[in-house]
Design a protein that fits this description.
- The chain is an all-alpha fold.
Length: about 110
């Protein structure tokens, strides 16, 4: 159940941006870029590309490991009780790093 919550956060965010796109008449990709630009911290945006790749890959690996660990954990396991927030944070950090790298490549 906790993994479902972690997977629903990006889906809800995407649905909100889609709804915003429909109501404002702007294209979805433009609004998604705007949201990602606002959500990217300046510290992360200022990192060199190599460091962004390492941080993004590490965050993605930890998020995937934690997601599958949560998925395979027995119900009511007290050790894994607070991992949902960490999974969402790591997945978001990996996405922001990937977006920052893609944005740099698109600008060049």
């Amino acid at each position: 159940m906790r993994c479902l919550v972690a997977a629903l956060v990006p889906a809800i965010g995407t649905a909100v941006v889609l709804l915003w796109s429909g109501m404002s008449g702007r294209p979805f990709p433009d609004l998604l870029r705007r949201v990602c630009d606002k959500a990217t911290p300046r510290v992360v945006a200022a990192l060199p590309t190599n460091r962004l790749a390492v941080v993004g890959a590490g965050s993605a690996a930890l998020a995937l490991f934690g997601f599958f660990r949560e998925l395979l954990a027995p119900a009511g396991d007290p050790i894994d009780g607070g991992a949902t927030g960490a999974l969402v944070f790591l997945a978001t950090l990996a996405f922001i790093c990937a977006y920052s790298i893609a944005r740099r490549r698109r600008v060049r």
